[in-house]
Amino acid sequence: xxxxxxxxxxxxxxxxxxxxxxxxxxxxxxxxxxxxxxxxxxxxxxxxxxxxxxxxxxxxxxxxxxxxxxxxxxxxxxxxxxxxxxxxxxxxxxxxxxxxxxxxxxxxxxxxxxxxxxxxxxxxxxxxxxxxxxxxxxxxxxxxxxxxxxxxxxxxxxxxxxxxxxxxxxxxxxxxxxxxxxxxxxxxxxxxxxxxxxxxxxxxxxxxxxxxxxxxxxxxxxxxxxxxxxxxxxxxxxxxxxxxxxxxxxxxxxxxxxxxxxxxxxxxxxxxxxxxxxxxxxxxxxxxxxxxxxxxxxxxxxxxxxxxxxxxxxxxx
Amino acid sequence: xxxxxxxxxxxxxxxxxxxxxxxxxxxxxxxxxxxxxxxxxxxxxxxxxxxxxxxxxxxxxxxxxxxxxxxxxxxxxxxxxxxxxxxxxxxxxxxxxxxxxxxxxxxxxxxxxxx
Lengths: 317, 115
Ligand code: SF4
Prior knowledge:
Chain A has 16 helices and 12 strands. Chain A has helices spanning 5-11, 22-25, 29-33, 60-64, 76-87, 94-99, 104-116, 126-129, 135-148, 165-176, 198-204, 217-220, 223-231, 243-247, 286-299, 313-316, and strands at 14-18, 50-55, 67-70, 119-124, 153-158, 182-183, 190-191, 209-213, 234-238, 250-253, 264-266, 272-274. In chain A, α5 runs parallel beside α9 (135-148). By secondary structure, chain B is of the alpha+beta class. Chain B has 3 helices and 7 strands; from the N terminus they run βββαββαβαβ. In chain B, β4 (56-58) and β5 form a beta hairpin. The longest helix of chain B is centred in the middle third of the chain and has 14 residues, at 65-78. The chains are: A alpha/beta, B alpha+beta. At the A-B interface, α3, α10, β6, α11 and β8 of A face β1, α1, β4, α2 and β6 of B. Iron/sulfur cluster sits between chains B (11, 13-14, 16-18, 36-37, 39-40) and A (26-28).
């Protein structure tokens, strides 16, 4: 259950940020979309909106909030589950509440505010989806948002990070039916995060070549994964010579998206935005280089025995 | 020298993808990014149209793009289980072609999301 940032801007009078630091990672999220904007339905802007911050430590973002709830690290799932019980007036023991590091009064107050708002929105960040519980946490929060709709309008939206990751999800879903963690090794797409997700593949040493575009795993991945990238032939496309380029067999410099490369990028609420490049780059775009590599690969024999090449995705859409 | 102005340019540094940035540039570098935040301004001002890096590198040595493209295609084609990964700081058009590449290679395809 989600919505666009435009709807949040126009209507959301109750905003919860959970496990993220928008003040420093998405600096204009507050001012452009959420708490600071005035709208037809919320004419007094910030005064008409309530912002709650749930996090394990008091970041800069917490200072912008009306209410800051400091949850104990790794207890997000428990807290969401307690909230799910409380909104339905179910009994919750004191020791369960104490475990999350919060008080019953704070939670009762939160539940009361959640129920009495007109349009509530959860924004959840990596602090929720990448800590103990991982996607179970996100799933629990989405369920809480769905259940809140018995009382009022409530939505949830992930705070997506760098650049066009949202676009990657959307494009992969469109082309293959799955958002990430995909293999084509049977000739059709299969999905299994944990088995086909990159960190796991690299740490286990499953793949025997890597094509890296628009990312720098050489700087962000755990060391065993980087070691495997060093062992296998790695190809890297980037506007800069990055950590990954240094360990790669092949590096190709490309134009930077939105600066000197045209195209489309998705906002975190899955709204596509056209890019308006200001400069002309001396380097080719990612699009052009990938197309040329694809053409060169297509010249070579297909990896399945002759005559058994399935219909390629690119010819279907 | 007068700077050229681009209105409503899009910043792709973070997931907000603000599309109201005003860029002042002289075709080589961007001098000002109005309305952008600190992160966005740094992103716009750090990228220039200058040639700071070699076109391509193969085993650490400078090469032409064509050589690099051919080498990349050979290495990927030779592999039994190639991985196509990343896809965040690039355009949707390039991402679509990356899906086609993984499909053509019978390889793995994954993005930042799985981290
Ligand atoms: S201007 Fe700032 S908030 Fe907007 S997309 Fe760029 S980095 Fe994000």
